[in-house]
Structure formats: C-alpha cells, structure tokens
C-alpha cells in the first residue's frame, strides 16, 4: 500500500513562489509514476505535472499548458519525495493540490489512472 502526504501549500501573492512536497511511503517513488493534480472550487480535478517512474535522466516529465514555464516537478529518490516548484503564481492557480501515484504506468497525465492519492494541500494566490 502506498501512502502519500503533501505539504508546502499556503497563501502567496501573485508573482510569488511555493514548493510543494509529497512524501511517499510503502514504495519507492522511483518505481511509481507520480503526478500533481489540482482542484479549484466548483471545478473538476485538473492535471498539472507528472514525472515518470523510469530513472532515466532523472525521470521524464509532462506538464499541463498552464504549468509550462512556471512549474517544475522533480523527485528525490533518497528522500522518497516528489516536489512541485511553482513560480510566478497567478490567482487562477488557487486550488487544492493533490499528489497522485500509479504503479501500473510509466507516466500518468490522465488523473483517472492514478491509484493512490494524498490528502491535498491548499494553495491560495491573491491578486
């Protein structure tokens, strides 16, 4: 069983930065396809970023268009942790951010393919 615990959310002004962390237990993040997904009030969950389970060049990554150039997903295998560095935050980035994982796929951009979920961390960006 994989457990995921997110942290690092908070309140920030537009243009600011936050780094989210997702600590995994029960399995190595190197063997899991990991992803960050967000859900804004009244909206469906939305894919943000993903990093593959293959330890090749640090793991291949995928980003939603809204995240490209501003967000960076990375992982630290020694700490069994996945990060989401978010820069130049905008009010439309306000949401609960969830960490997800899959043991079945190499990389996941479809949120329905994620088997394991964390409890989420709130990110609020003021204008």
Can you summarize this structure?
The chain is mainly beta. It has no helices and 11 strands.
Describe this structure as you would to a colleague.
The chain is mainly β and 127 residues long. 0% of the residues lie in helices and 48% in strands. The protein is built from no helices and 11 strands. Strands 2, 4, 5, 6, 9, 10 and 11 form a 7-stranded mixed β-sheet that branches. Strand 7 (71-76) and strand 8 (81-86) form a beta hairpin. The radius of gyration is 13 Å and the shape is globular. The N and C termini lie far apart (40 Å). The relative contact order is 0.31.
Topology:
Blueprint: E1 3-7, E2 10-13, E3 18-25, E4 33-39, E5 46-51, E6 61-63, E7 71-76, E8 81-86, E9 95-102, E10 116-117, E11 121-126
Structural shape:
globular
Strand fraction band? Answer: over 45%
Overall pLDDT, averaged? 94
Distance between the termini: 40 Å
Give me the count of strands: 11
Order of helices and strands: EEEEEEEEEEE
Which structural class do the helices and strands define?
Answer: mainly beta
C-alpha Rg, in Å?
13 Å
Largest sheet: 7 strands, mixed
Question: Could you name the ranges where pLDDT drops below 50 across 5 or more consecutive residues?
Answer: none
Count of DSSP helices? 0
Indicate the percent of residues in helices.
Answer: under 10%
